[in-house]
Amino acid sequence: MSNEAIQEGDPSGHFAVFSSQNSKFRYTYNKIREVKSHRIGELFAAYRDILWDDGRHKYNVSSFIGEIDEILLGERFSTFDQNTLDNLIGTLRQRGNSNATINRKMAALSKLLRKAHKMGDIHSLPEFRRQKERAGRIRFLERDEEARLFAAIRSRSEDAYRLSVFLVDTGCRLGEALGLIWNDIQEHRVSFWITKSGRSRTIPMTERVKEVIKLPPNTEGRRPKGPFTKLSQAQYRAIWNEAKAEVGLGADEQVVPHILRHTCASRLVQGGIDIRRVQMWLGHQTLSMTMRYAHLATNDLDGCVVVLEKPRGEEASSRSAESSVFASPLTTPSSSKSARKPKSEAVKAVGKSSKVK
User: Fold this and answer.
1) Residue where a domain stops, chosen among 267, 299, 331
2) pLDDT for the residue numbered 221
3) Angle at Cα 55 formed by Cα 52 and Cα 56, nearest 5°?
4) What local confidence, expressed as pLDDT, does residue 217 receive?
5) Are 152 and 292 found together in one domain?
6) Is position 17 within any domain?
7) I need a labelling partner for 55 at 20 to 30 A (CA). Which of 15, 65, 292, 315 fits?
8) Sites in the chain below the pLDDT cut of 50
């Protein structure tokens, strides 16, 4: 694609002059700004450190953009049109990418292109439409699985064990835990400042977390900066994978460190905590993300089973009891008899009462 130029401002070449008592300002509006063509990889190299923090997410984004650049055959562009985007999504789907995976790759691309458009590197943006995702099965650890896995982790590293306990009881992300410093822990609460959503949150700690996160003694000024700063993500994942294989979970691809976050969320919902509070605990940006766990809240439905399992006899008696409760006292047998009393008897009764007087 050839380079294109955009002329901004007054096409006549005129400029405005603003005067004041002390100074004169001259503004020229006929500046010419040239929009060059770029490869997607060049844009990523220019803005990756501005848009993404260092870490695993940035590594994944780098992989996504690299694949997109390869699909586009390294073509240079100054306009990323809708047809290009549609063809890109079609190619990803042909390669076996699920809608969820496509959404993540398009989120990275959209973020990069919006920055490039804002900086004047490209003319226009296509419309990014989120692909419909299926609600997949959420894997979480049972109590016995947690006990076996944590024991295997502890046999390899006490620090990794402490981190595992912290992750499952707080539900925080691995990067959030590793980024903690001691000042983030105050009065039995922990604050997460470095989060995926960019929003900080503070949650209380369980007794188990308080135990594993105790401040170590300051020996010769060698106290670590935070409770888990001795570990890196790579070190923890290596220990995790070894322990996972030892306890017979090596073939389960869903048993990754992030499963501890799912486990925490699942236990909160199953324990009767409402979805809104679970959202606040996990730090989800939208409630729809937390709704993935809503199906686990079955406590409110237990009463339905009781009704459905009632024998027919009990069901009939319960209906008759309900009808008697709602029956009007004016329609009882005794009241109906008195209501049907002949008029002559009523007159006699009135006469007797007058004689008594």
Assistant:
1) 299
2) 58
3) 105
4) 62
5) yes
6) yes
7) 292
8) 1-30, 32, 325-341, 343, 346-350, 352-357
Which whole-number Å values give the CA distances from 289 to 5, 25, 277, 284, 293, in the listed order?
43, 52, 13, 6, 9
Residue 189, both tokens: 């609460």
Q: Number of folded domains in the chain?
A: 3
Q: Kindly state whether residue 129 falls inside one of the protein's structural domains.
A: no
Q: Are 41 and 66 in contact (CB under 8 A)?
A: yes
**CA 228 to chain CA mean position, Å:** 24
Same domain, 46 and 169: no
What are the phi and psi torsion angles at 203 (to 5°)?
-135, 155
SS3 7: strand
What is the residue range of 112's domain? 40-118
27 and 81 in a common domain: no
Same domain, 213 and 293: yes
Mind listing the pLDDT tens digit for each residue in 53-77?
A: 887 788 889 999 999 999 999 889 9
**What does the block give as tokens for 162?**
């402490």
How many C-beta atoms surround the C-beta of residue 2 within 10 A?
7
Whether the CA torsion 227, 233, 234, 239 is positive or negative: it is positive
Helix, coil or strand: residue 318: helix
Q: From CA 242, how far away is CA 98, in angstroms rounded?
A: 29
- Residue 288 sits in the same domain as residue 234: yes
Opening angle at CA 259, ends 258 and 264, nearest 5:
105
What is the model's pTM? 0.59
- Within this chain, do residues 110 and 69 fall inside the same structural domain, yes or no? yes
C-alpha torsion sign, points 335, 340, 345, 347: positive
pLDDT in tens, 11-42: 444 333 333 333 333 343 445 455 678 899 99
What DSSP string runs through 123-186? S--PPP-PPP---PPPP---HHHHHHHHHHHHTT-HHHHHHHHHHHHH---HHHHHT--GGGEE
User: CA-CA distance, 110 to 9, in Å (whole number)?
Assistant: 28
